[in-house]
Amino acid sequence: MWNRHSKYYPSILAQIIFGLVALSIVVTTHADSKVPENLQVHGFLSQGYLLTSGNKVFGNSKDNGSFGFREIGLNASLQPMPSLQLSAQLLSRHAGKGNNGGIRVDYGFADYRISSDVTKQFGIRLGRVKNPFGFYNETRDVPFTRPSILLPQSIYFDRTRNLALAGDGAQLYGEANTNFGDFSIQFQTGLPQVNDKNSEVALIGGNFPGKLRSRLSYIGRIIYELDGGRLRLAVSGTQLNVGYDPAAPFGADLMAGLVRFSPIIFSAQYNAERFSITSEYAIRPFRIKDFGVSALDMNFIGESYYIQGAYRFNQEWEGFLRYDVLFTDRNDRNGRQFRTSTGRPAHNRFAKDMTVGLRWSITPEIMLRAEYHRIDGTAWLSTLDNPDPFNTNRHWNLFAAQISYRF
Question: Is this model's pTM higher than 0.85 or not?
Answer without folding.
Answer: yes
